[in-house]
Amino acid sequence: MxxxxxxxxxxxxxxxxxxxxxxxxxxxxxxxxAPHDPxxxxxxxxxASASWEYWLGNxxxxxxxxxxxxxxxxxxxxGVLAALLLSVLLGAVIGxxxxxxxxxxxxILMRICDVMLSFxxxxxxxxxxxxxxxGLEHILMAFLxxxxxWFARIIRTSVMQFSESDYVKFAKVAxxxxxxxxxxxxxxxxxxxxxxxxxxxxxSMVLQISGFSFLGLGIQxxxxxxxxxxxxxxEVMFSKPEFMLAPGLAIIIVxxxxxxxxxAFQAAVDPKLAASSRKERSMAEAAAGxxxxxxxx
Amino acid sequence: xxxxxxxxxxxxxxxxxxxxxxxxxxxxxxxWMPGECLGVIGESGxxxxxxxxxxxxxxxxxxxxxxxxxxxxxxxxxRLGKISAVFQDYTSSMNPFYTVEKIVLxxxxxxxxxxxxxxxxxxxxxxxxxxxxxxxVKYPHELSGGEAQxxxxxxxxxxxxxxxxxxxxxxxxxxxxxxxxxxxxxxLRKLYGMGYIFITHDIEAAAYLxxxxxxxxxxxxxxxxxxxxxxxxxxxxxxxxxxxxxR
Lengths: 297, 247
Ligand SMILES: Nc1ncnc2c1ncn2[C@@H]1O[C@H](COP(=O)(O)OP(=O)(O)O)[C@@H](O)[C@H]1O
Ligand SMILES: [Mg+2]
Description:
Chain B: It comes from Paenibacillus nanensis. The structure holds two protein chains of two kinds. Chain A is mostly helical. Chain A has helices at residues 2-8, 11-28, 30-33, 65-101, 103-118, 121-132, 136-163, 166-174, 178-214, 226-234, 242-269, 278-292. Chain B has a domain at 99-160. The A-B interface holds A 103-104, 106-107, 165-167, 169-177, 184-185, 188-189, 269-272, 280-281, 284-285, 287-288, 290-292, 295-297 and B 16-17, 53, 56-58, 76-77, 79-80, 83-85, 87, 89, 92-97, 103, 106-107, 110-111, 130-132, 134-139, 141-142, 144-147, 152, 155, 159, 173-174, 176-177, 180. The structure holds adenosine-5'-diphosphate and magnesium ion (MG). The site of magnesium ion has 3 residues of chain B, from helix 1.
């Protein structure tokens, strides 16, 4: 909790955090927040612009855009987030084991990763959908299958680098156990790297989901999803560009919020970047200054 | 007593699947007596750091044994309170996310348990290595090289081990700071009655601090001799290294 406070001292991060919490809450309780039924067709309201009744206007079938946006949070944000967290978790466990213990364990795990990574991702997704049938959960499952290997490789490299450092060597000499070394030295060091790769793949996953929905493999037609809304608006991109605005901005805002939050997270864990606790230490520094001058190196 | 018996170590050349091996240590044997300061001298690449990792039990020898008071050092419990280390690279020797206090505390909580009452202990350790108690809240990147190495030394003596392995511990420091740290090591040795295994490529530093020195060349023990008889070395390699300094 102390740590969360540190992250939220950054105003941009606090705003991003608030936006994400709000978006998720609205998404989870979509039926409460949505003003209309997202699938209700009103042909007489096709491409109607914003009004008091329909705040963001109506789409090509006269459906309420705001309600569709709200119902789209579940697949677009919550679904992707869940798949992302699961694959990062799986990748982290495998990456930590491979990077820390090395040797045969590492060789075997990394060959499995290579096999997973050697399939082109679209082919793999198509195969999963072919086997299990059309549906968002199957696409998310395919993401999980594909992405963990990629995360595992990156996390392994990062863990390897830290586990070679002399402070880990010292901890081993002092008799600290493997689990404690991972918990105290390796996980905190690797977390910023993990946050960066996770947040950077969030945006691409949202866009990929919408691509599959467009192909008819993900979310099925009447249901709302942000990427699919973009695709529907694409048909009138030149005559009525304002219809791209709502889903496009929604995706951009969520992706940006995630990225800002991960940046702030990185800055908060790195003592070199954390300026927040500077003030408390400056007094100690003044007291130590006398000693500092004594030495050259 | 640390008893090293015919240790061998080789590393694979190239990848994991390669068969070709490079032998780094060839059957080294010696004894270290409690309280003694033993110097290990060799050129870069002669296998000194490899030997250090075997002595510290964080790598296992391919052949031979390293025993401390009769127990294998690879056993984590056998090392508690017996052996500790200071490494060359003071920047990577400390977790960058830890304060000095947390860094020095690590061996203490490992040896005495998490509820060990450490308050006076950290201050007195910092005082012993010549640092102000205000350094407790500093992070590694805020320390100079000499200060960082002092913190590493404080951490190494914290759990009061019998032996500290110092692998090129002063080699990255400036000349005048090197002498300060050597003097500090001499003082601490008197204070705690512990011994060192001082690994270096610098004969002068070894002669200043040690009681006995051994010369290592390409993973083989060339010669072992008392420091007061250093001028009488027999092996051509040791004579050569000595000449380089005297000249
Ligand atoms: N982990 C390792 N893997 C492969 N080769 C190693 C490893 N550690 C050391 N070596 C090799 O062993 C030799 C001796 O290295 P080292 O013990 O670091 O020497 P020194 O500390 O005396 O400079 C070097 O040739 C080095 O390439
Ligand atoms: Mg070395």
